[in-house]
Amino acid sequence: MSLDFNREPEFPPYNVYPPRWSFDNEKAWQLYRRAKREQWDEQDINWEKVKEIASGLDRKQRLAIAYWWSLLSTFDNATPVFAYALVKSHELHLDTAVKGVITTITYDENRHNVMCGLAINSVLPGYPFDFKPQDDLERKVKLNTLWAWYNGSRYWKAYLEAYSKYTMDVLFTSFMMGEAAATTVFSTMSKGSKIEEFGKAFKNTAVDETRHYAFTHLIMTSNAASMNDERKKLVSKQVRAGFVFLSLITYRPPKDFWRLPPWYLEVTEKMEDLARSAGFYIPEMKEKEEAWRTAIMRVGATLGRYGVPMPAIPELGITGEEIKDLKEDDFVPVF
Ligand SMILES: [Fe+2]
Ligand SMILES: [Fe+2]
Questions:
Q1: pTM here?
Q2: Is 22 left (phi over 0), alpha (psi -120 to 50) or beta?
Q3: What gap in Å lies between CA 107 and CA 236, rounded to an integer?
């Protein structure tokens, strides 16, 4: 191929080159600056103190806390999710500040994921892979973690494919439900935790998730006006997908999507009680329902302003657009 160097080169589409910078989109710049300001270090949590407290708990209580963190990591294993979104945002040459915010979310999610690992390592090192169950309950607990993660692998497959099905604005709005739910979960857990160090970790995580929510909100509000009805329908569908996916830890897994052992819920509830008895605050079912209702109302209020119909969430008695065709490959949301 001969190149005419007297002419400007032609750049291929969907390529991260050429670099180009934009300095408008003040709202995104504000968020980017806020993200840099609000950084914190998961290694500043006094994990030695957590270890000390854990040494005073019995085996089942430690297992229960490690189990909860393992479930959380299904959703906070989100570094690659945002890293992939970051690559795509560069290929599509989104605003400089938007790419900057996604870079910080990638970093945030890595921090959340490392935090899950540090928490597990402080209460029950080696869980779940090196954990040797001593009775049937322990065996089921370990299997629950592994099967939750198996569903995560199904999510990941769908997520990668979602980029060929959805536009960037729909994709980012898909994260909205998750971030809204995460904000509520982490702030209630930080307030209730009797283990001070966990309280701190949750409080800091809530700060991050609040910012992530603000980002999805910004994307939503700057794109919704130009969305056609078909795209709006996809957004409603993704809000429902968010509820279904994140309910594993924030509520109870609905029938759609999840493939879990038949004992999943019973064993999880047992573990939650044990964790509570150790001072590890997990909201009760009623509180979880309330938290979801708040999150859904919040997202719904925004969506409604742009004529995006709210999906029905019959599990919570919320009426709206019925989403019947939610398939395995529709899952984009994450924390
Ligand atoms: Fe997040
Ligand atoms: Fe997160």
A1: 0.95
A2: beta
A3: 28
| Per-residue pLDDT reduced to its tens digit, 260-298 | 999 999 999 999 999 999 999 999 999 999 888 888 888
**Among residues 77, 75, 254, 88, which one has the least CA distance to residue 172?**
88
Distance from Cα 206 to the centre of ligand 1, integer Å? 9
pLDDT at 177: 85
Structure tokens, 262: 């038949």
**Structural domain of 123:** 42-330
In a domain, 302, yes or no: yes
Which residues are in the CB-under-5-Å shell of ion ligand 2? 76, 112, 335
* Residue 125 within any structural domain of the chain: yes
pLDDT at 168 exceeding the cut of 90: no
Contacts of residue 96, defined as CB under 8 A and 6 or more positions apart, other chains included, come to 21, 22, 23
Q: pLDDT-based confidence at 134, cuts 50/70/90?
A: very high
Q: Cα(4) to centroid of ligand 1, in Å?
A: 47
